[in-house]
Amino acid sequence: MVKYLYFSLALCSAVLSDPGSASFSFEHKALVQVTTSTFPSSMDPLEVAIEIGAEDVDTVSNNEMQAVADSSCQNYQFKCDISDVRQVLKVLKEKGVNELTTTFEYLPKTLVELSEEEYEEACQLVDIISVHEDVVEVYSNFTLAGQL
To answer: Does domain 26-108 match CATH 3.40.50.300?
Structure first.
């Protein structure tokens, strides 16, 4: 794995930092997703987020290939600290929301805007690393300039 990683980085003119050197750029969070079609229409997602102790709520597509504007493929995504996820799930279920999906992610604290050329190179590197059998997930903190 290590040789593959160094080779992959060299292909993209990148270098490997010390272990843990980038971990301060990410926060480990729980994401609880609820399809909008199963969320009671009488409740406001933002008010529910505040009440249940979630840090934030967003409307996201449940399929990246579908437009978020299509409400049939939307989810409400409640972001919370990992230590709070049980309470968030409990209160959502008490409110009648039963179809829940929970994931644990490393979310970037800040995003770095890259030019189109830099963005393509960074995506290429992520793709190269992602296909290795020992890699479970690759997290990044970059975005295309103007996409924030």
So the answer is: no
